[in-house]
## 1
Amino acid sequence: MYKELPLISLQRMPVYLNYLKGMPATEKFVSSGHIAEALGLGEVLVRKDLAFTAAVGRPRVGYVREELISAIEEFLCYNGKRHAVIVGYGAVGKAILDYGGFGYYGIEIVAAFDSDSEKLGVSQSGKPIYDINEAKSQIERLGAKLAIICVPAKYAQPVADLLVESGVKAILSFAPTTLKTPEGVEVRQIDVAANLAILSSSIK
Amino acid sequence: MYKELPLISLQRMPVYLNYLKGMPATEKFVSSGHIAEALGLGEVLVRKDLAFTAAVGRPRVGYVREELISAIEEFLCYNGKRHAVIVGYGAVGKAILDYGGFGYYGIEIVAAFDSDSEKLGVSQSGKPIYDINEAKSQIERLGAKLAIICVPAKYAQPVADLLVESGVKAILSFAPTTLKTPEGVEVRQIDVAANLAILSSSIK
């Protein structure tokens, strides 16, 4: 999916969705120029992004707003929902497990795992937290190819190894450490502290 | 601070720190080649990064490990601790307020703000959660120029405006929406869902 789509365009899709959904219901049409101006983007860029969806703009009036919303949503969920799991049900894992924003991208977080037996059970939004020992069997059962690592840095590599063994093909890690995975298993790291440090360095 | 330092080098500093601190205590020396190999980086790149610190490598043996650790730590905290505040004490705000990893970069999260009176008080690690109405006075008092927005997307822009009014110069936002700020106020967005979507799109 998204074969030809630049990552940065993909990242803008929910931004468009948010904006379009936030417009007054009375606005039937919306042009790429209007979207571009509202979001501070170039018009050509917006038009190129939206061309990845099935939406068709009309000369002079632009897109029918509701059609454009549906087209972006369809585009993002094109292949049906992908299942993802979380390892580490601490503060970060908790925040992510119950966050609803993944649906925009056709992703559903279906379960979390932890090694602390006191954390096991069901989350606020009704999602299961399983024992880490069940990870392999549950991940296989759930068909999850996506996983999010929310454990402390020192546990991140063994967790990544376990995930790879369980058939996971892509890992998002919040652990501030470099993970080694075999070829064919993609890893992205979100380093909140590093992002803040970069901002800090921008202050005169 | 970090005037000439590329952002990506800054981002690697804590990775080096983590690696160096994790080495067996018996390893007195460490070479840039060794670090490069362990972290899957180029040796020239590692040497260039470390040259931003005050550490001096010795021919053949490399750096004294403890000296290099101190040099990186000193480098990151060169200008003393910077204060940062959080707005929105939901699951994400909570996770960040009590996360200890910012110290690596010379940043201290000193307070959070929320509009829900039931959330006000003191966090697990002893940090204050103030009423959002106190934000301007407290941010000025604390001298915080850095802020992290952890509120839902629809509240993010008014919160950003309030932060700018309070003297904040750089904002890290977890809200999946584009923020407008005046010139001189830097914004970075961490979009967890978009990152996961990008990974998802990499799965064959």
## 2
Amino acid sequence: MPRYTAPVAEVAFLLDRVFPMEGSTGLPGLADLSPETLQAVLTQAGRFAETVLQPLNQSGDREGCRRHEDGSVETPPGFRAAYHRYVEGGWPAVSGDAGFGGQGLSLAVGAMVNEFCTSANMAFTMVSGLTQSACSAILAHGSAAQKALYVPKLVAGAWCGTMNLTEPQCGTDLGLIRTKAVPQADGSYRLFGQKIFISAGEHDLAENIVHLVLARIEGAPAGTKGLSLFVAPKLIVRPDGSLGPRNALLCGSIERKMGLHANPTCVMDYDGAEGELLGEAGRGLQAMFVMMNQARIGVATQGLALSEVAYQNAAAYAKERRQGRALKAPRSPEAPADPIIVHPDVRRALMSIRAFNLGARALLVWTALKADIARRSPDAAARDAAEDLLGLMTPVLKGVLTDTGVRNCIEAQQVFGGYGYIVEAGMEQFVRDARITAVYEGTNGIQALDLVGRKLPRDGGRAFTAFTKEVASFLKARAGDTRLAPFLGPLKQGLDHLQQATLWFMQHGLRDPDNAAAGAYDYMHMFGLVAIGYMWARIAAATFAGGDGDAPPEDGRLLFGRFFMERTMPETAAHLARITAGAATLVAPPAEAF
Amino acid sequence: MPRYTAPVAEVAFLLDRVFPMEGSTGLPGLADLSPETLQAVLTQAGRFAETVLQPLNQSGDREGCRRHEDGSVETPPGFRAAYHRYVEGGWPAVSGDAGFGGQGLSLAVGAMVNEFCTSANMAFTMVSGLTQSACSAILAHGSAAQKALYVPKLVAGAWCGTMNLTEPQCGTDLGLIRTKAVPQADGSYRLFGQKIFISAGEHDLAENIVHLVLARIEGAPAGTKGLSLFVAPKLIVRPDGSLGPRNALLCGSIERKMGLHANPTCVMDYDGAEGELLGEAGRGLQAMFVMMNQARIGVATQGLALSEVAYQNAAAYAKERRQGRALKAPRSPEAPADPIIVHPDVRRALMSIRAFNLGARALLVWTALKADIARRSPDAAARDAAEDLLGLMTPVLKGVLTDTGVRNCIEAQQVFGGYGYIVEAGMEQFVRDARITAVYEGTNGIQALDLVGRKLPRDGGRAFTAFTKEVASFLKARAGDTRLAPFLGPLKQGLDHLQQATLWFMQHGLRDPDNAAAGAYDYMHMFGLVAIGYMWARIAAATFAGGDGDAPPEDGRLLFGRFFMERTMPETAAHLARITAGAATLVAPPAEAF
């Protein structure tokens, strides 16, 4: 039976000490909390995750969702009651806009609450995550009437939101979308088509579900330029906000999946469903991207969240399970064997996971604080700079936290030996659940292409330049601090590799875009290593600044950082070698050779 | 619905061209086949795997095994009939000893037949794999009567074999075994205890199941020195070979697992079961290691086999699924999109898998040919040299082919995007099934420690020296061949790194064994890269020697080899960096810091 304890102290340390919340203090519409109140919020969120959500995780996986003949979908036992408590506790609304009933806390706090709840129960929590993303899209692109009608309900979690993009013939290539929107005399539209892989497309948790649907208005051009975004609620919403009759949309079936069994992945059939245009006609993709980008950060959080809960269980097991003896001398001579945590190879596995988790969480918090600024700062330059960094980090976070999240879940499962393969232990569920994070909201290959093809060259490389400048300034300012030397050296090396790779793309990728595409995946991972390495250097600096002096902090956190620097950062060299190998060998074989 | 085509031509190429079978020709007891006959055997084996086993793979996963109240276990529908055909076709006996009814073919041929059958249906095939390993243990340590009684039935597959090591309190640490053997007046023993995680411990495929059981004779010392190995058949075997009554052993339950659903993983309760000592009392572990080492090669084969079938499906999907356009110009302008195999990042994923598979298969064949020599050569020096290499390569093959096998299954699943997460596509089953290979027969962490702690230092490092000498001689002999340059340079670099790491262990691991243990896992993977790199260089040399001249071979095989050299071999540098980082950071944190 797996366990979970929300890493409240770790989050508080990041928010109070590493990236003091003052960074976003005073932003319009953002509630400021004292460290004590913040700690209380995090503690309560953690307790909710631990006591309400976590106990439903294994049973939810086992029971799964059931679709009834009328197209309704029943979530696993206990999920409705838990969702009720989730809404009652105000948890969906933590970072919600205060003007629409949200609590108006920093997105960083919202991300951490999401992390806690996802570690406890990913299938449950992603319902709410997508709702928050749908809400943002309506806030960004909706009319005043749409905002008034939908946003308060979505912020509160009384209604849920979904994103409807994929169709059988198109996932990545949205230009191929066929779902049709037929204009009506009253300015509304009727939607016809089939969407697949719709997460939480139908369920019994909330009183209504608001679908955001990409479709092509009759007569619109082919390709992505012909796409528009529509709001199509499950139950028609009357202008006064009351719920009307059912809309002509139905869950046709739910998928049997590797994991995430408690979250229904639906085929959605639109058979003349009423829909309202959201934003401008023909600019549906842009509106959907607001939702998608936020969802990508949410998926990155999922990767971290599963890595964290898998780690916690592996660490606990390694302290309890006794096999063999420490190499130099028995540690528990009174017992028949030592706990396996004495073995260096078990420590290698555990430390690689935790070193990643701590650094990745810092990166997530840092990025979320920038998102606060991008959304709320009155200073246009500050907004632009934050938006740049957010755009750059979104694919990095999504790709790296999920790929590594999956790898970490496997590594944690491995610590259990044969027991990890048994369903009861719960470790294999983490692997199965985590696996989807590398796929949805754009596969990680797509994230890499987004990074290298769009985010990197945008505005003459402004975002990349700002990031490398920040890291270089940090390195320069701290150069004399010998306590930081174990962090600064590897970070500098990693930054050099990243700059070499970027230069290589400029020299070879413009001439032949295959060279950029062939190295994109490695570049994304290298970027992640450097960004997390920078976070570790920031953590170390904050730790020493906190008055701990030369002594390592009591809980040994920085030893995990040193592990990251010594053993994970060297991978940047392999990434660089692969990137500079170019595309020649990749593009040479004809399709038949595969 | 996944598909599978046995790579017959690839295997024939390895056996005929790269490692001509003459290497084992003329060994006593080994049947020699002409290339044509060999091709026919492989073709038939492939057809059996494709048409009989593969169609049962998904249904077997879905249906799983069922234990009845009487302790009997029912395999999924179709498995009994398939097993009957498997035995009838003589497939279990391919490499079986001709003196006991086997076909006496090279172990390399047997390994390849196992690969085909495992790609098609791992849960089915591992029943037979363990039987072959049990058979080897009886051949090596049994009395003449035991051999005569058990081996012919096991060789033929009429009876199956199992290995019973694990108990709830001990997996890796077998010294903790509690199962008790009570001597009887007639020289036999009664076994009492519980074994867990017993693969195919009970089923309905064969008329009898021969359990090899590690137990402690009453009064024997604690630890591994007190362990003896026993043969305890499910049905008592009378001295004339006929089957008698049921033995006092029972399957108490079967485990719910992540994958491998069609293979029952049993809790076995021994309640006074009759057992006969196999080999000497107190030397049970040594006898079991014969079985275990062979089983480890079998597990390595499983890693490769799943990587291969996952690759085949991903490659087929990438040629069919159309999304997006090639970067430079559409490849199928007449269609709405290009097949995704035009995208460099999809090729990167596919090539990394196939480049590994081709090289890993060569390493498996090469090692199996050495095993033939070790087992059968009349020349003691040749036997010793082959045994050295076999011992060295066993943990490398097991650890590297399974870790990479799992990673490759995930990478192949990823090529499918969202579809790969759906059960129907079959890709997620490959991941779930493959996952156990990194765990059983000794976790991969244990393989790494076996390599570094035992195999490397044994006989003054004789095996390692022989291996590096062979690679260095190859490099020297081919130094002038410019066609081979893309292979030789990276191989030389990898070999240098391996030698540096080995030297580092000598300098730092003897002084502090934690340093060796902390680097063992990276060393194992580095060793695998160098060994597979050597295989690719051998394949390239054989290809050019085959008269293909300067032109790349028609099927572009060597392009995959170049991919391996350009993009996979550079990882040796990261492994070296990690190894030489030592144990200091790993051993520093107290258990509470985890």
